Amino acid sequence: MKRTIRLATTGALILASVKAFAGATPSPPGSEAYIIWPSDGTVITGGKLWVRMGLRNMGVCPKGVNVANTGHHHLLIDSDLPPMDQEIPSDRQHLHFGAGETDARVELPPGKHTLQLLLGDYNHVPHNPPVYSKKITIIVK
């Protein structure tokens, strides 16, 4: 019985140590995500548009591929940045481009909308420090 308790305790300590040392994937200095198109203030007619995504000092690679200094884009629509220590949500306001896409066709309803890019690592978690674009505003007529 004592041996079992020791093993369980040791196992718990090992798991706690792994969690303590686990952290966000690092991003290199000077990394920057940016929206190539549309630009801030663009007026779109019809609601369908292509969003072109840019990245400086890092590479783009699909989700699940763990390669240093790479990640994949997430487009935040009408949303603030999510918590930086958790997986980026996947819903209508947080679009994932896990195949490594650098442009995407998006359809938005009429009105004012904000767009922002956030780079995620192989597990959809923001890098450390996080790599994200300036938030832009567009109008759909």
From TrEMBL:
Residues 51-141 form the DUF4399 domain. It holds the Pfam family DUF4399. Residues 1-22 form the signal peptide. It comes from the Bacteria. InterPro entries: DUF4399. This is DUF4399 domain-containing protein. The lineage of its organism: Bacteria, Pseudomonadati, Pseudomonadota, Betaproteobacteria, Burkholderiales. It comes from Paraburkholderia steynii. Keywords: Signal.
